[in-house]
DNA sequence: ACCTATGTTATCGC
DNA sequence: GGCGATAACATAGG
């Protein structure tokens, strides 16, 4: 479920329970998880060290090692970071395991294998090379106003463009636009100032609240679109029916009555 | 068999 | 170059 709130949950999980524990062994059952690093280099960077700090930019999770290098993780569409415990998925979905000297483990599980890991020396350079925009939770209203002004594309496409704002994907872009009562196809540059402020407030509120509730949709407030993403479902505001349209190859859900 | 699915990247056409 | 649409990657489930 990895959009910004999910990855933030993983970051907190790692920060709370995964740091300052020596890495005894690095297992890579499936090499396709490696991106721009081979298994030997990954093991060399991690074995005998510990993770000592965490960071996140959009959907990328960073774990700094005790040797100044940084483990980069991306979770694709189905990746999960697990700290200790029994694997929550079949063993065939395990893509990376850091076995810890104390007997625990950090694992990346990912059925669809669209996630990846790598190791970098310079996180800022990595973000620049991969054209990652500012993290969505760091966006100030002026930043949002400026980036909207420069783009005639639809609001949903702009929110999901990781080079403009990092962290928002298909599900949360729908939720943010639903909460802000804005049509996903509205040209970004066409918003008036009140609409920009509304979008900014809801963008932060949705992502922050989702992360604080463990990115678990069943814990989200009633009135959120999240559990009503079905064509024809009743709008949680009671105004009409949710419609599904195709935007950029993805299903976009919105309420034509509430969102304009 | 067909369609859909939380992500990213490349390519085509306007 | 911007922008939308499409396919590809890989896998599971309806």
List the helices and strands and how they pair.
Layout: H1 4-17, E1 23-27, H2 39-46, E2 51-57, E3 60-65, E4 70-74, E5 80-83, E6 94-100, E7 105-109, E8 116-120, H3 123-129, H4 141-149, H5 155-160, H6 170-179, H7 193-212, E9 243-247, E10 250-254
Antiparallel strand pairs: 1-6, 2-3, 3-4, 4-8, 5-7, 6-7, 9-10
Helix pairs in contact: 1-7, 4-7, 6-7
The chain binds a DNA duplex (14 and 14 nucleotides) through helix 6.
How would you sum up this structure, described in words?
The structure is a single chain. The chain is α+β, with helices and mostly antiparallel strands. It has 2 domains: 4-129, MutM-like, N-terminal (N-terminal domain of MutM-like DNA repair proteins), CATH 3.20.190.10; 136-254, Helicase, Ruva Protein, domain 3 (Orthogonal Bundle). It is 28% helix and 21% strand. It has helices at residues 4-17, 39-46, 123-129, 141-149, 155-160, 170-179, 193-212; strands at residues 23-27, 51-57, 60-65, 70-74, 80-83, 94-100, 105-109, 116-120, 243-247, 250-254. Strands 1-6-7-5 form a 4-stranded antiparallel beta sheet. A 4-stranded antiparallel beta sheet has the order 2-3-4-8, with helices on both faces. It is elongated and about 55 Å long. The chain binds a DNA duplex (14 and 14 nucleotides) through helix 6.
